[in-house]
Amino acid sequence: MRSISVLEPGPLATVQDRGRFGFRALGVPLSGAMDLQALRVANLLVGNRDGQAGVEITMGGFRAQFRCDTGFALSGAARVAYLNGDPVPFWQAHQAKDGDVLSIEDVSFEDGYIRRRPSPWKVRGEFPRVGAGLRIYLALSGGIDLPPVMGSRSTYLPGGFGGLGGRRLLPGDTLPLGPPVGKALKKMAPAGLIPRYSFQPLLRAILGPQDDRVLDEGKSTFFSQAYDVTLRAGRMGIALAGPPLKLTGSADIISDGTCPGAVQVDGNLQPTILAADSQTAGGYVKIATVISTDLPLVAQLAPGDRVGFEEISLWQAREIYLRNEYFIRTLLE
Amino acid sequence: MQSKPEILLCGDTAISVEFGDKIDPGINALVRRLYALLKSGSHPGIVDLNPTYRSLFVQYDPWVCSFERVVGIIEQCLPYIGTPAEEASAVKDVPVCYGGEFGPDLEEVAALHGLGSDEVIGLHCAPLYQVYMIGFTPGFAYLGGLDERLHTPRKKVPRKRVAAGSVGIADRQTGIYPIDSPGGWRLIGRTPRKIFDLEREHPFFLEAGDFVRFKPIAGEEFEKHFGS
Asked: Are the beta carbons of B137 and A161 separated by less than 8 Å?
C-alpha cells in the first residue's frame, strides 16, 4: 500500500480537502483547507485532481517518512523544508523515494508571537516574503485516501470527525495514499497563483449582510483603521482587536447563516473573521465579508499580525474571483 | 410578514434571502418551503443551502452560476412558497438537569428577571418548542417559543468552551449544544441525551420542523444516563 508515516506532526497537523458541502442545513461546517488556494495549487502541481486531500501543517516542525516512491509538493506559508537534508523549494512538485524523510523547520512561539527565522537560501522574484504566514500544505500524488465522512476527508476537530479519526495527526500515524491520477508538472507555480502573504495584509471585503446595523462612523472605522490579530486565532475564526465598531443598537441579531470570511462584531464591538471551521449560523452582526479570493491571506494570519480592510463591490469581487479561477483551471495547460 | 424577500450580500459566493426580521412561525415556514423547493430542483452552481429562522442562506460558485442567475432562480420559486408543505413533525423529549455545574448561568438569568431559579425552570419546561433551524455546529437546534419572561441577551464575550448537551438561552431563543464548542448563550442546564452522534445510523437527533419538550431531571439521573 502506498503511504506516508508521520514522525512529528508539529503543533497541529490535520488532513484537509476542499471541505464538506451539502450539510450546512444540519449545522455541519464547511471545514477544509484554511488556505484552499495553496492546497489546490499543490494538488495540481503533483498531478492530482482539484480537491484531493492533503495535510495542513500549522507553523512547522513537521517530519514525515515516505513509505513509497511518490510525487509531492509543498505550498502555503514560506518555510524551510528538507528532503533528507536537501532543501525543498515550495510551490513545485518533487519526487520522493521510499524511506526518504521530509522535514519542515520548526518555528518557536513565544509570548504568543512566532519567532521567524530567515531562509538559508535566496528566493527570487515574486516569491512571497519568507516568514509570513502560518499554514503549510503537503500534497501527495494520489491524495490521502481515508474514508470520507459526509462526502469529505476534511478533519473537523470540534466535532471529532473526518480526516484520520476526526483528530489531529500524531507521531506514528500512517496516511494511506490513493493511486496517482496524473503526471506531476515540471514547473513552478506561476507567481500570480501564489497568494501574497503578508504580516499586514489588506483584505478586500464586501459590505453586508448586516451593514445596516453599523453606524456610518463604524463603517468608516472598519475600512480605515488597522486591526491586530489576537491570540484567539484558529480554524474557527480570527479574533481581531482595534478601534470599536459602533453599531446602531445591540450586536445581537436573530441567528442567520454564516460562511468563512464573514466579519462579525461582538458585544465589545470588536471584529472576528470567521474561518473554515466556523459555525454555520451565528447571532452577531456581520458588518462585511472578506472576498473568497482573499481567504488565503486570512488563513495565514498569526497573532501579532495586523490587517486592514478595503471595501470593494460584488462586481469587482466577481472579476477577481473569475480571473483567479481561470488561472487555476489553466495551470495544467 | 413580507413575501417578497430581501437579498443580502454575504461576500462574493453567498447570499441571504431574508423574509423578515423576527422569529415567527409563518416566516420560518416560508424559509423552509423555499429551502425544500431549491433542494429538490437541480441547480448547478448552488453548492449549499442553510435554512435559518427568517432567511435562507444560499452558497453558490460564481464560476458556474452568477449572482444574477441565483437571484433569478429564487424569484422563480417565490410564487410557490405560499403553499404550506405537508410535514410530519415529531415530538421529542429532552431530559435536562437544571442549574449547578450543568447550568452555571441559571442564577444570573433568574436574578436578571427577578424570578426564582425554580420559576425559570418551570417557565423553560412549559412550552412545546419548534425547531426553527439547525446551525452553528452539527445538530445545534434553535428552538422557538421561549416564554417572554425568559428573554435574555447573550453573554458579552462568548465562552471558549461550552460542554456538549448544555441547554442555553439567547434573546428569544433556547437551544442545546450538540458538541463541545465555544458559545455565548446563557447556560441554564444540560441534557445527558446525545444530540449528535456519528455512531448512530441517524447522527442528528433533531431536524428543522421537529417539536421539543424539556423534562427536568435530578443530578443523579444525569449521571445514570451518562453511565449507560
From this structure: no
Predicted pLDDT of residue A332: 63
Angle at which helices A36-45 and A314-329 pack, to 10 degrees? 20
- A248 occurs within a structural domain: yes
Look-up: residue for cell 455545574?
B101
Interface test with B, best of A30, A155, A214, A280 (most B CBs within 10 A): A280
Are A257 and B12 in contact (CB < 8 Å)? Answer: no
A residues 253..282 contacting B (CB < 8 A): 254-259, 261-262, 266-268, 279-282
Q: What is the pLDDT of residues A71-114, one digit of tens each?
A: 999 999 988 899 998 999 999 999 999 999 999 987 655 444 45
CB A196 within 8 A of CB A298: no
Mark yes or no for CB contact B137/A29 under 8 Å.
Answer: yes
pLDDT, tens digit, for every residue of B43-97?
Answer: 999 999 999 999 999 999 999 999 999 999 999 999 988 876 556 678 999 999 9
On average, the pLDDT of chain B sits at 90
Q: How large is the C-alpha radius of gyration of chain A? A: 20
**DSSP three-state, residue B75:** helix
Question: ipTM score here?
Answer: 0.91
Question: Are both A281 and A159 inside the same structural domain?
Answer: no
Contact between chains at A24 and B48 (C-beta distance less than 8 A): yes
Architecture in CATH for domain B6-80: 2-Layer Sandwich (3.30)
Residue of chain B with shortest Cα separation from A328: B63
Global confidence as pTM: 0.88
Q: Which CATH architecture has domain B91-227?
A: Beta Barrel (2.40)
| CA dist A223 → A198, A227, A293 (Å) | 18, 10, 18
Window 26-45 of A, Cβ < 8 Å to B:
26-30
* Residue spans per domain, chain B: 6-80, 91-227
Task: Give the side-chain half-sphere CA count within 13 A for A303.
Answer: 14
- Mean pLDDT within A170-184: 95
Full domain range(s) for residue A51: 3-192
Q: Are the Cβ atoms of A252 and B154 closer than 8 angstroms?
A: yes
Half-sphere exposure of A12 (CA within 13 A, CB side): 12
Segment A228-238, tens digit of pLDDT: 999 899 999 99
Q: Is A149 on the interface with B (CB under 8 A)?
A: yes
